[in-house]
Design a protein that fits this description.
The strands form 3 sheets. The protein has a 3-stranded mixed sheet, covered by helices on one side. It has a two-stranded antiparallel sheet with strand order 1-2. The protein is elongated, with a radius of gyration of 20 Å. It contains 5 helices and 7 strands. It has 185 residues and is α/β, with parallel strands linked by helices.
């Protein structure tokens, strides 16, 4: 009985001392514009991600390991009315340090983000929504490798990182370096 009471008291004190679950504390930086900087380090079981774009409360959030992009978007207050969530892979598993950008619907939503399926000339192509034709425009990727990327994406529920392309046949270390600037998760 005493152990149960002590355990309950310990759990309650831990809840009162810490921040709310999933929250990341912020400290003002002395850097450019006084932008908030995440405080503390992520534990081995958590992923700290930056959610930006067309969400209600963009920011840096700590989520449990194995969380999906949809969890991060919900943690940021959900997508706004001008969001185009079909432009990202909501089922992708988050990785620590990842940035999740929810695109806007373009001029209609007042956002400068591209409409899904299109890309600005210098904008990175999204691995989550890219077509064979879009991938084929990237130097180092031909139609066969583009199809391999789409097959890999479908078999694995998406790509959460450009680094995953290293597992695809036809993409080696030299090609990986050229792809980093042309692609985004």
């Amino acid at each position: 009985m005493v152990l149960l009471l002590l355990g309950a008291r310990w759990i309650r004190s831990a809840d009162q001392e810490g921040s709310p679950p999933g929250d990341v504390s912020f400290a003002q930086s002395s850097g450019e514009g006084g932008a908030p900087v995440a405080g503390g380090a992520a534990s081995g079981r958590d992923a700290v991600v930056h959610v930006a774009g067309a969400v209600r409360d963009p920011g840096v959030y700590r989520l449990p390991a194995g969380s999906r992009v949809t969890d991060a978007v919900e943690r940021a207050g959900g997508a706004t009315g001008s969001a185009a969530p079909e432009g990202i892979n909501l089922a992708a598993v988050l990785s620590d340090g990842q940035q999740v950008v929810v695109p806007g619907r373009g001029a209609a939503g007042g956002s400068s983000a591209p409409i899904p399926g299109t890309a600005a000339a210098d904008a990175p192509i999204s691995l989550g929504t890219a077509t064979i034709e879009q991938l084929d425009t990237i130097e180092g990727i031909g139609p066969v490798t583009a199809q391999n990327i789409l097959d890999y994406r479908e078999e694995n529920g998406g790509l959460s990182s450009v680094d995953e392309l290293d597992e695809i046949s036809g993409i080696g270390p030299a090609t990986m370096e050229s792809l980093r600037g042309a692609l985004q998760p």
